[in-house]
Amino acid sequence: MSLDPQVVWEQRWHPLREEWVLFTSHRGGRPWIGETHAPRELDPPAYDPTCALCPGNRRLRGENPAYTGTYWFTNDLPCFSPDAPGSPDGDSFYRTRPALGTAEVVCYHPDHGKTFVDLADDEARAVVELWAERYRELGSRPDVDHVLIFENKGSLVGTSNPHPHCQIYAGNLVYAHMEREAEAGRRFFERTGRFLGQEVLAREAAGPRVIAANDHFVACVPWFARYAYEILILPRRQAASLAELTAGEREALGLMIREVATRYDNLWQMPMPYVMAIHQAPTDGRDYSTFPFHIEFHPPLRKPDTMKYLAGPEIGGGSMTNESNPDDRAADLRSAAGPHYRKGTAG
Ligand SMILES: [Zn+2]
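# zinc ion complex -> structure
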């Protein structure tokens, strides 16, 4: 078998998760006869009377005020709560504990039809400022060991409501990826005296996988990407959470998120579905000064109409296979620079 020199057929170590990722880019173009997902151009109205997030609308419990900027509320059906019952049936083998904490919904903007790409500079900054405030406030609660801020965007990742929003799960559970990153960051520092996140930055910042950069952040498809169009936003200095960023850095982060979201949409001239997660230090009172704060974007598509299915190797075996070369995918996203494709047309 003769292989193109661009082919990546090897295992790469994921330094943040401390696990191997299998790269098989020679298999990315294999014939696909399964289900495809035709791109769908959404054009939601600025206000939807049936939306639980629009200003002035009634929710399951309560009613939204006529908010004009960002807005957050406690999830009407939270997965963590001070009232969570727990179970009296556990023992030392089948362990159990109550799901304490809270869950919140954060609306980025009152306009139902907007997404992050439509936010003005000060609106993008306001979202990041609110995230930092919620992280600090929720993280200070004794029943909250970790604050997970994430956005599911698009119906392919299970979001039926296009209203621009994200969620916060804040409870007595340290989410698994962050727990591993915390341990990896601690061990790396003990071994080398350097910060794990800054080591990744040093490898990526000058390389072929950068897709955008500003004074405070670098966005890249990392060398160890688990998904074809995965993007990491890395801070240019060590930080463990949003709370450690300066006002200038938070402003730059908002602009970088908007830039990444714009590139995604421009890539195939369609709204790009993704899961975005903010990786921040747990808030359980331990020292996390070596935690590698960053933001991860995981789009489920590897082509405009083809999902990356998690199947035998991923669900069955527990390790990811990436059928692409991250250098190539970064080049695709670099070529998607410029204003959002809908600007100047449908707006
Ligand atoms: Zn809405």
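# post-check
The two ends are 49 Å apart (CA to CA).
The pocket of zinc ion is lined by residues 48, 51, 53-54, 112, 163 (CB under 6 Å).
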